[in-house]
Amino acid sequence: MVAILRSIAPAAAVVAVLLDVVAAQTFQRLGTCPTFGCVFPPDQADFLAGQYFDIRLEVHAPVNGSEANGGQPDEKFTFTIAKGSAKPVDAPTFFGVKEPALERWNFTWFEDLFAKDKGTPSLVNVTSRAYRRVFLKEPGEYVATLGYNGDKKTVVNWTVRDLSTVRKAKNVILFIGDGMTTNMITAARLIAHKTINGRYQTKMAMDKFPILGHQMTHSIDSFITDSANSATALYTGHKSTVNALGVYADSSKNVFDDPKVETIAELFHRLTGGAVGIVSTAFIADATPAALVSHTRDRGQAAPIIDWYLNGIQNYTWTNWTGPDVLFGGGAENFFNSSHGGTTFLDRDYYAEFAKKGYGVAQNGTAMAALKNDTKALGIFSVSNMAKWLDRNVYKENLRNQNNSADGLHKDATDQPGLLQMTTKAIDIVTQRSAGKGWFIMSEAASIDKMMHVLDYERALGELLELDDTIRGTIAHLNATNQLKETLILVTADHGHGFDVMGSVDTKYFNAQTEPRKKRAAVGTYQNSGLAGYTMAGNLSYNPGVHFPTTWDPRYTLFQGLYANPDHREDYAVNKDGPREPAVEGAKNDYVVNPKDNPGGIVYNGTLSVDNAQGVHSLTDVPVFAMGPCQELFGGVYNSIDIFFGMAECLGLSGKGL
Amino acid sequence: MVAILRSIAPAAAVVAVLLDVVAAQTFQRLGTCPTFGCVFPPDQADFLAGQYFDIRLEVHAPVNGSEANGGQPDEKFTFTIAKGSAKPVDAPTFFGVKEPALERWNFTWFEDLFAKDKGTPSLVNVTSRAYRRVFLKEPGEYVATLGYNGDKKTVVNWTVRDLSTVRKAKNVILFIGDGMTTNMITAARLIAHKTINGRYQTKMAMDKFPILGHQMTHSIDSFITDSANSATALYTGHKSTVNALGVYADSSKNVFDDPKVETIAELFHRLTGGAVGIVSTAFIADATPAALVSHTRDRGQAAPIIDWYLNGIQNYTWTNWTGPDVLFGGGAENFFNSSHGGTTFLDRDYYAEFAKKGYGVAQNGTAMAALKNDTKALGIFSVSNMAKWLDRNVYKENLRNQNNSADGLHKDATDQPGLLQMTTKAIDIVTQRSAGKGWFIMSEAASIDKMMHVLDYERALGELLELDDTIRGTIAHLNATNQLKETLILVTADHGHGFDVMGSVDTKYFNAQTEPRKKRAAVGTYQNSGLAGYTMAGNLSYNPGVHFPTTWDPRYTLFQGLYANPDHREDYAVNKDGPREPAVEGAKNDYVVNPKDNPGGIVYNGTLSVDNAQGVHSLTDVPVFAMGPCQELFGGVYNSIDIFFGMAECLGLSGKGL
Question: What CATH number has the domain spanning A31-160?
Fold first, then answer.
């Protein structure tokens, strides 16, 4: 459940995930370790030549439960590596490092829901070693072997991909529509672009990209991912476990000692000296931005994550990281300290920490626009997630009485920049600061996901349209600054939600009925769906070339929904008073319909476990739109990790500096 | 509702759609005609140079209702056409045809649900003319103008696309997964292909295609399509109205006089003399196969549709059509006549009619395999839709006691071929019969859609996997017969269903609980989704290279669903007794949970209008996979009609024979 809460709650409100409080419907002692001998990175991992990573070895000895084997983990396990058919050598020799100390711990887990109901966890004793910051130099196949418990072996095959080392793109901008599926893009197009006789008169910016791909988003050890482990896959080429950022999840109690993998931002910065920009509409410690620089299996570590942006990884020697050139987003509660109600690492004032390192600091949109382009920039524009496009542009009163100003003075953050403004400002800064070395930007439309979670479809589609407008405006800006041809532009998502549109709803008829079964007659399907009402009336208008609905509350709205939902009440109309909250806690861990949400709607029992306040992610492959140098690497159907390898190849990072 | 029923019910059980019994939630006097002057094809229609079409003009005069204007439709309307900036000329002169007779009729419609509840329809009087079998020769822009009611004008812009006239593909095979979305492909991959640490060990055949596109499926006058009007778009380049096959829907009472557009099958046959194969797992009068040769706004005309396959269009001079070279599918009830309980055109025996025209006739899989490859072939293998892959291969007892043998003798159709067997046999026949002129095949996996409609997800995914295996086997067969390089292979869908997978369900735990809210705890999301159980256990196996689940009833099943549903009860387990029937009629037109369906499950109120027995289609763009000559025409995002133009261009049909 933590994964869900994390994605909408303010950072400060979230507790850490502990391996031994797992509330599992499906159960694993430890992901990617089906036997008692665990190697991370596991079998079938792929690497970029020269990419730093840690190795974690674990030997498990269950004390009780169906796997019980005496509870004495082997202390004398062995570990060798071989390249191709060469003779295996021990890891210290292979990597030229010292043998690390033996570690010990234990953890518990539940084998299934029956065990959980009974309160009978299984206890596992563990011995372990970790090799830190190693790398593989030559492309090819490697075999690593963990020997334990006498003749037991865990054999893992690693591949260093043989990629072109010629740099083809000077810059990369990676747009992530968090949770964005093809279904949502189709719905957004419908409400914002006019048709005449089945012909759209305008297209989404994404629709115009020359190359289309699909990426598979599944996690390494479960088939549904969260944004942490999917971002890790996109940025490092290594799929991971739910909630993990830039690490494989181990079983130790310490959430900061899991085996790390170097990210595209770290590699690009270390190997090219180019500039890095990170932009998100989420609180900036959220998973999708955080995964660029953070290394922990617990995405909930918001305060340390902010320190990592600036100072790089703690406790362990790691890659050369000196802070992003641009960091724009929400989440001020992890910048101002407890004297203003915030939660920061060592209770420091992180605005001051960034300023000390030479950053220009902005706390609203006006100040952001005034930031110098030759100076590193921190822009934090609100407490928690930034305001939604719909509230910033249509229902503006919802920005009042939020007490969420970024300065920690509990005023209203009414001057928040949009994603387009943040992204183009970031481009201006990284362009100047990179001094010809190129730049990498990740720009995230975070609240597509956050609003889908709370079944607030209009706000989610508004965020998606803002992303599309940001793409349109970014292309124009790159063109105007003569950078379009040398920049690879990618647009993708990190996972989906099971959302679709199936027709229309006559809200006038719906609201005129009192019986739920009669209200359902307002739902029109097939020919009775008619044409979208969102562009046929209303008086909202925007700049030329910019496409949003002309009204958000037409009589005929969309019949749309998510199958994976909590108890809720549906009225198929925009929520004018701010983001929706479909369910509230009745009894402890038992969420029921929010009495204030859609009071005139139809009540539906949820499909999810009753401890869910929100909807959840889905399995579907998500689209990838590519334009620019190397665009041809991103067509067809592939794994999420291939996005990392495509970007790294295009930037000429394979084997660089070795 | 007819659209839904049509897609699963036996053809004989369905009644025609009449314009004046519309049960509309969203309302149109007549699609694509917002004013009182209607021109079909309407504004923004695209044409292939030389493609035959009809023109229908209507002038409407509402008698009552909000649009009432006296009820006297203009009898003296005018109609002119101009190419580019040339002087407009009257249509008979432009096309070199006689002025058609004036027609008159009237129709009624409801303006909204309130009017329907009150029983107050609006009456419209109509004057009309229809120009039959005309064509546009030169690529470019055309302007057609209907003048009526004094100075009123309806101006429509038509485009004849300027396409390459060089034929690049000898053959085209178009696979249609009816209702298939990216979400479903992702789910099918999950249950049939093994992963190790997030890496699929095998891929879907579709995943290996070099080019990926998305097509927009919406209808011309409503944003949700059915299979009739989406097939019309794919085959003719003209989007149409729900339920319409190869025509624009007019308002006349006669469902056979609507304005026609020539299809890819008709064009290919007329212009190249090549061979045409039509294969479907549906009853063969169903929309997706029927749209290749039929022209009516009512897909429910099953008996005439069978005659059209053989004899071409009735009543009007039209294209040269002499019957497909191969016609394989179900729907025997429209071949054997009333003496065996069937419903056929003029009560003829259509097995005899086809045989008279030289067709070899097969009524089971064994006979199909024995058909000669040099002779036209009719293969009809069951009454109604053919058996599902899951019942043919796993739960075979479900083929018993169906009394559905194709011969009309009411035995069980236990010897039904699979889609792969039908498709490769069709290839063998068209290859030989085309004598080097090339061939066109449409092969449809129809019951992905039909099983999604009834919320039978396992059967739907089984059908999708059969389609994927058919693609795999077809590529191998084309390669073996040395035809792969000269054949364009397309895989797409006609529309979606709002389906996705969001986690897993511990069915053991689910079934051990009695309280619905406790059962919901069995749903595992994110890390608790675990790995798919469908390939981890079981004893089902197949030929090498063929991928289906090794079990269909693992303990941990998929948490999957459709948001647009009728009242139903869900238990998240495969239906071993045959296709699911989620809802049954309680009161008239009021569907409630089927007491026999999933008795141990959780009851959910439907989201759809209570007159729905099934789920409905969705809006989402659907994928297009392309391989072979002209594959590059099918990347990116485009309109469904572009599939027609891509195929026609690749076959060199533009302007051919003029």
Answer: 2.60.40
Residue A657 pLDDT grade (very low, low, confident, very high; cuts 50, 70, 90): confident
Confidence of residue A25 (pLDDT cuts 50, 70, 90): low
Closest CB from A207, A506, A605 relative to B25: A506
Provide the residue ranges of all domains of chain B, joining segments of one domain with +: 27-160, 505-604
Burial class of residue A67 (count of CB atoms within 10 Å of its CB; 0-12, 13-18, 19+): middle
Query: Whole-model pTM?
Result: 0.96
Q: Look at residue A236 and give its three-state secondary structure.
A: helix
**Is B515 buried (19+), middle (13-18) or exposed (0-12) by CB count in 10 A?**
exposed
Cβ(A462)–Cβ(A452) below 8 Å: no
CB-based contact B506 A112, cutoff 8 Å = yes
**Considering only CB atoms, which chain A residues are within 8 Å of B607?**
520, 523, 559, 561, 570, 604
- The shortest C-alpha distance from B41 to chain A (Å) reads 10
Q: Is there a contact between A401 and A239 (Cβ–Cβ < 8 Å)?
A: no
Whether the predicted pLDDT of B2 surpasses 80: no
Q: Which residue's structure tokens are 């939902």?
A: A565
Name the residue facing A504 among B26, B233, B496 (closest C-beta): B26
Residue-wise pLDDT tens digits, A334-376: 999 999 999 999 999 999 999 999 999 999 999 999 999 999 9
Two tokens, residue A519:
């209200």
**Residues A408/A342, Cβ–Cβ less than 8 Å:** yes
Hey, what amino acid is at A60?
H
Q: Please state the three-class secondary structure of A290-349 as a single string.
A: HCCCCCECCCCCHHHHHHHHHHCCCCCCCCCCCCCCEEEEECHHHCCCHHHCCCCHHHCC
State residue A614 phi and psi, 5-degree precision. -145, 170
Topology of the domain covering A171-498+617-624+631-650 = Alkaline Phosphatase, subunit A (3.40.720)
Tell me, what's the pLDDT at B23?
37
ipTM value, please give it: 0.95
pLDDT digits over A402-454, tens only? 999 999 999 999 999 999 999 999 999 999 999 999 999 999 999 999 999 99
- Please give the CATH architecture assigned to the domain spanning B27-160: Sandwich (2.60)
Alpha-carbon gap, residue B579 to B391, rounded angstroms: 9
Q: Please, which residues have CB within 8 angstroms of residue B640's CB and are 6 or more apart in sequence? A: B215, B216, B217, B230, B233, B234, B239, B494
Amino acid type, B63: V
Reported as a pLDDT band with limits 50, 70 and 90, residue B467 is very high
Cβ of B523 and A608 within 8 Å? yes
pLDDT at residue A24, rounded to an integer: 40
Distances from the Cα of A51 to the Cαs of A432, A646, A654, A656, in angstroms? Answer: 27, 14, 8, 9
pLDDT digits (tens, 9 = 90+) for A290-317: 999 999 999 999 999 999 999 998 767 7
Q: What's the rounded Cα separation, in Å, for the pair B199 and B45?
A: 46
Q: Which residue has the tokens 């003749």?
A: A151
Task: Report yes or no: A467 and A288 within 8 Å, Cβ to Cβ.
Answer: no
